[in-house]
Design a protein that fits this description.
- There is one protein chain.
- This protein is mostly helical.
- It has one domain (about 5-54).
- It has four helices and no strands.
- The longest helix has 12 residues, at about 5-15.
- This is HTH cro/C1-type domain-containing protein.
- It comes from Fimbriiglobus ruber.
């Protein structure tokens, strides 16, 4: 999943403020979500699968 796909899917699921909501649901630090969003860190396959199931 590319960062653009990640952003698009997360915005569709969570709407405004999606980064904080996703961090809460995944029990991750908001900084981790920002790293995935920027492409600085790869998005874990488990997270990709979880998002696609929603």
């Amino acid at each position: 999943m590319t960062p653009d796909e990640f952003i698009r899917i997360c915005e569709a699921i969570y709407g405004a403020g999606w980064q904080s909501k996703l961090a809460r649901d995944l029990v991750r630090e908001p900084r981790t979500i920002r790293r995935w969003k920027s492409g600085e860190s790869p998005i874990p396959k488990a997270v990709v699968g979880w998002l696609r199931e929603r």
